[in-house]
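Notebook, p. 212. Picked up where the previous page left off. The plan for this session was modest: take the two constructs that came back from the sequencing core last week, fold each one, and keep the raw output in the notebook itself so nobody has to go hunting through shared drives later. Recording the first one now, exactly as returned: residue sequence, then the structure token string.
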Amino acid sequence: MEARVCRLYGENDIRIETVTVAEPGPGEVLLALAAGGICGSDLHYYQHGGFGPIRVREPIILGHEASGTVVALGQGVSGLAKGDPVAINPSRPCGTCEFCQKGLPIHCLEMRFNGSAMRMPHEQGLFRDHIVVEARQCVPVAAGVSLAEAACAEPLAVCLHARNRAGDLTGQRVLVTGAGPIGALCAAVAIEAGAAEVVVTDLQDFTLDVARRMGATRTVNVATNGTGLDVYAAGKGTFDVAFECSAAAPAIKSAITCLRPQGRLVQVGVAGDTAVPLNMLVGKEITYCGTQRFDGEFGDAVAMIAQRRIDVRPIITATYPLDRAIEAFDAAGNRSGAVKVQLSFAGT
């Protein structure tokens, strides 16, 4: 079988090519891909050839947010059947290293993650018509849920893990800085967890409108309303928890400024070396907490989407067929008119 793939050769160099797909081996599944979301890391690879110290050093098939339909099963696979719709978990910890043995598979020393240029050779991604994956990567999707929604399980899982790092949000006042897909989903999971107030900031009205549809109780465009957060900074700050989703130094500073003493800042956004106001961080006894990827939250995300406890549909703002991938990436990079842009594949 042959399949089309979306392969990046370098900065602004995406090519749609054809590859041969093997039959699934023991413990593997052949999938027809349906939908794949363009993530911020995919955009960084496309626009800049990488982000931070991670650089594209060889051609790589992009994509780690995807869903599809089971086409064939390898020997020994159970719990799946031909025709089943599934969300694909791109994370494959080894299960045997020091951190896996300690119950920290997120920090696996041999982690393999679809569409990542961190390792060499690169881990090839999910933007293709057909793919063979390990059966353990496939999480069945309930009837009535579109495969476009199912492809949002990966970013939702990221936000659920961030929420778990934040602690109990019941009755809490929450700030979210950055209204991209992750920021909008952080607002949604905070509301779902019982937060009393969720304020979202960004530089674009379009993304802030989506954040409101995802549950934000108030939004502030800090580009056009530079004093919009002043009320929350009064005294020693207001918010109990902040999810920082932009990785921009001004946003980090505003989050620390607006947190109350002994508040918790969960750093979701990733960048290179970034300035942090340590004087305020120390003086207000802020807990600065990192978060990355997910583990069991992936299955939780699929279930929450199926139950519509989190309705991901508002973040999907455009869909392009694979042969228009360059248009899709260019659209995804325009934050004044896009939140989550998806590619559609043969299994749609």
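Okay, moving on. Second construct, recorded in the same format:
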Amino acid sequence: MAIALLPKLLKLAPKSALAHELAAECFCKKRMYVSAKEHADKAVKLGPKSPDGLYVAATVYFDLEEYDRATKCMEACLAIRPKHLPSRLLYAKSLRGAGDLQKAESICRSIFEEYPDSLPNYSIWHQACKITADDPIYLHIRDTVYPTLVEKKLPGRVVLLRILGKAENDLGNFETSFQHYAEAKALAGNTHDRTANKLFVNAVVSGVSRADFFGSAGSESQSPVLVVGMPRTGSTLLEQILSNHPQIGGIGESKYLREAASKAGVDFQDGSSLADTIRKITPDQAQELAAEYLQKSTNAQPGMLRIVDKNLHNFEILGLYAKLFPKARIINALRDPMDNCVSCYLAPLSNFHSYTQDLTSLGQYYSEFRRLMDHWKKVLPNPIMEVHYEDVVADTEGKAREVIDFLGLDWDPACLSFQENVNQARTISTWQVRQPIYKSSVKRWARYEQHLDPLKAELKHFYPDGF
């Protein structure tokens, strides 16, 4: 209803910062980000000292993963109202997204001193640092806040259990950590539809063949590089290594390909819709969508020979990508199936990843992911390279050299300075990727083995010689 009124408002007050602020907020809440950003830019230009306008603009930029712009808006906002709690929280979130974990953690701790019971603050803090046994925030949550929520049956238990699970994992208390995560998932309830996902993959596997890509007339560009796979496969580390190369830019978990798929008419829940689009897309449509994707990517990373798009779930729509860019490269990030699934189960992933809510769903989803990728490898014209996390850990330079060679570029030793990479690490792996390579995550699943029978039942075909 608000959006329906916006054209009239903007016609009456085209130079009103407040009008554009309201428009940006409405479009952002409806996830109409192109319009949201347009009006956020205008709101900031027309009202550079409006704290509300700066806050709304920062919210838009944050959702678009433009964390540096969000940070600058919040710095200007806090210069006007330094004590405003939502602004301080958004500032800390933006800093965390931009990779300035130390500053984000510092702000969270200053907020804790004034607002010790702020749930949003806990959510930012626990992803900005490694938690220690004497951390006052951790102790307050464990000893005071969580027991109070349980006693009074207040909301927020799921969030706190996940935070406590991460804390106990950081402390090496793996049994307690797993119990917290399992209880959080049980409280949250399961919304994943196992049958729908299997039907999606069935429709793609039966509906898309090699013949669908004969004579494809998309873009000849080899600039885009997709990194696809399951979460928690070391893909953030891989992106950081690659984007440290002077000829490679990273655009993070870009929405650009999924936007192109939507424009082409793909229903993301329907495999038949995807297969139908792949068969029927015309050369003109393919070139138009490819040109738009390239423009957005090169605007984000100008002057680069290769641009890495790390939206992992693009594995679902690789057939459309092949129609747009039949010569562009694809990297499939893989990890030991048990390690991968246990890491997903223990990670604070969004509701999008509903398949992580129970071990059986998770195992089935992983198996379907591998089945779909096996099909894409058989039918797509694109070069596809599998990169195993364990190989990167065992021989970082050797594997990095292989990947750079696969991308058709000369080796550059800067790739090994990935901890210093100023490119944002935009995921929950932010803290880990700033650390030196570590091997403790290999065969991590064995710590929790007594709980994993449902997962083993689904993944046993990946281990013909036993676990």
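Notes on construct two before I forget. Residues 422-436 have pLDDT under 50 and may be disordered.
Flagging for discussion at group meeting.
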